[in-house]
Amino acid sequence: MRLKDLCADEMPREKLMSKGAESLSNTELLAILLRTGRDGVNVIDMARELLKSGDGSLNGLAEMSVNRLCTINGIGPGKAITVAAAFELGRRAAVEAAGWTAETIASAEKVFRIMQPVVKDLDHEQCWALFLNRSNRLICKELISSGGFDSTVIDNRMIIRKAIDRKASAMILVHNHPSGNALPSAADIEMTKMLNKALKICDISLLDHIIIAKASYYSFADENLQSLAIVKK
Fold this sequence. Notes:
By secondary structure, this protein is an alpha+beta fold.
């Protein structure tokens, strides 16, 4: 069926205007982002194909890079960038909804709710630092490094410099495991020990190191690893 053969109430844009965005299916919302189809395929059918390429789920689609999106028939750089931007806005909205600017960071679960939307769909590791004041209120969060599928490297000196520049009294380290296994590796444990030791010299507390793997997380503080001298608050 050609898109123009649909009645006005079935057209995605018109349907959104008359019934609200919540009335649209995932396919229809994607069709609005794509705007046009390709030769012989209307935009709704192409949106359906796009969703299928992400294993039929929005989470699967969100994990796809711009380059990967561009390999799909009919999806050029413009469409791919629009889709990627929409998912990034969704992640940022989720972070804002967590209320990180207004609340004290009092638990690993709170950090998980802040950072899980940021890293859960990545196919590579990222390491983030959350810098806090003396009341454990978040000053800012910053990307420290971005690596491969199973590792990323951090520069302790850079982290300390950033903490001092932001007048932070404490920090929480966060990184993701794209594999889906949140348990720390030997390298994760050694990295945390070294960072903890370096921060102590500057009278900055490492409150926790949290590893996020999709829908789960591991907290060094919650596990009370005595060797790290990180205590649960």
